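Exercise 3.2. Students should predict the tertiary structure of the chain below and write it as structure tokens, then compare their answer with the key that follows.

Predict this chain's 3D structure.
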Amino acid sequence: MIVDAHVHIWRKDPRFPDPSVTFMSPASDIPLELLSRYMDEHGVGRAVLVQPMYPGEDNSLVADAARAEPDRYAAVCVVDPRYPAAPDRLEYWVTQRGCRGLRLRPSFAAEAPAFENDDLWSRAQKLGVVVSILSRMEHVPWIARRAQRYPDVPIIVDHLAHPDPVAGPMSSAFQEFLALADRPNVFAKPSGFHNFSKRPYPHEDCDDFFKAVLQRFGPDRMIWGSDFPHVLLKAGYGPALHHFERRCPSLAKDDRDRILGKTAERLYWGG
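Answer key:
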């Protein structure tokens, strides 16, 4: 079973204030049916629907899609951690609408100060949800503190916290990221290389990052995601799926299977 643990769908929002912040315009629909066609074509059995940056906290599209096909999709919701009602909003989306994960986004400057909202983290722990984090390298110390304080909360770091290919894997920033492996509840998501690579696909400048993460975290704590639909304009769905086996041919099949599915199944479906 292949699981794509990082995909987005949305309804168009022509009023979105800054369409340039994303590769795929929010003024165009990205329907579930489009994702499903790519999954079927490439033999991907399950996907984790991550709420995109728009339309804000209205997680209805991803929640309804996952609730209609719970064996195929899991939903990750967003709530704004700056508001006192954030824990109750999370409980609503989890208990009433079936979401299985929460995404926090300290890389958004407005949300960064509220990243350490203890009430929200405590509620996530109580609800048993997976917390995904859209972050940058400067947020790694925050993640380490959260992981230590809430050891029962699975934490996934999206896109490897956007490392700097120019600085390379031996940089102090990335070494600090690798130290997150000392926290058993932290998982690494080697995804979205097109977001930080300085080279076009196959993003050769990301190879050493992947190998370093594999060595420190191991395949049981690594989770692949395509970053659909953004990847369609940068590499293509198929190339993203086969990226690791092509760039790291020594990767054992069993390890690849864990990265491409088994770890995500365990977290989101209890498999």
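Discussion points: The longest strand covers residues 73-78. The mean pLDDT is 94.
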